[in-house]
Amino acid sequence: MPQVLASATPRWYSADTSAPPPAALDKATLDKLVRTNKVVVFMKGNPQAPRCGFSNAVVQIMRMHGVQYDAHDVLQNEALRQGIKDYTDWPTIPQVFIDGEFVGGCDILLQLHQSGDLIEELKKVGIVSELLKAEEAKDTAKK
Amino acid sequence: MSQEPQYPPIETAMRKALTTQLKPIFLDVSNESPMHNTPKQAESHFRVLVVSEKFNDLTLIKRHRLVNDTIKNALQEAGFEFMHALSIEAKTPKQWQPEQEPEKSPPCLGGFGK
Asked: B111 vs A90: CB contact, 8 Å cut-off?
């Protein structure tokens, strides 16, 4: 485990039930955060080490499509975890944004991937999916 | 069949709300909590497959919101917090064949409880 550095900001521990939870991040902050890249993912853990099967599924889908994205680990930041749920009015993590628009969680991403719609959604924001490139390369080879 | 235990409270509330409000032609609710590091009889991780006419004109995300909200309101009324994990398949009758099995959830990676 990485060492936690001493910090001036108060830290809350689950054992201290009387302590108020940290304030959820506000809308203005999240408006910016969801647009730091064409694709932004809020997940548990990070893409190198997802801490939840559903977050991992999203990471694998993004990898298959060769998408470069920003990932935020909600386990590192309780204000972010609550803030993003309030922001989207969506109860679970992971949450995926494309071009600042909330697309959905793991189930929706999986279905968009399976139906081929994810390739189209990525195309709209100027990302060419690796799966599409592979498909096109195969077609060219056939001709 | 052996003696069936009474439905656990959260699952019961979910089933009731989904049945009465979405009038599904097929509903499958599975408690996947045992796949995760949870105490016995935990009701923390669920997967639902709902097939309903109500989804006909809704986008994927709106269908999921409808399921989420239906469950959220029912649990709130019953005095429960929203569960830790909920996986949703929301299909229209046209998109569903009776022999179709619900999807499986990915394996737990140990982040639960964090």
From this structure: no
Residue of B nearest to A54 (CA): B106
CATH assignment, A27-137: 3.40.30.10
CB atoms within 10 A of CB A141: 7
- In chain A, the residue whose alpha carbon lies closest to the alpha carbon of B113 is A75
| Predicted TM-score (pTM) of this structure | 0.84
B64-110 per-position pLDDT tens digit? 999 999 999 999 999 999 999 999 999 999 999 888 788 888 888 87
Question: What is the per-residue pLDDT for A26?
Answer: 92
**Chains A, B: CB pairs < 8 Å:** 57
pLDDT of A65-103, one tens digit each? Answer: 999 999 999 999 999 999 999 999 999 999 999 999 999
Q: Does B87 reach chain A within 8 Å, measured CB to CB?
A: yes
- Tell me the per-residue pLDDT of B3-13, one tens digit each, with 9 for 90 and over: 444 568 999 99
List the beta bridge partners of residue A72.
A42
* Domains of chain B, earliest start first: 9-36+44-95 (3.30.300.90)
**Distance (Å, rounded) from C-alpha A87 to C-alpha B55?**
24
Q: What's the burial of A22, exposed, middle or buried (CB within 10 Å: 0-12/13-18/19+)?
A: middle
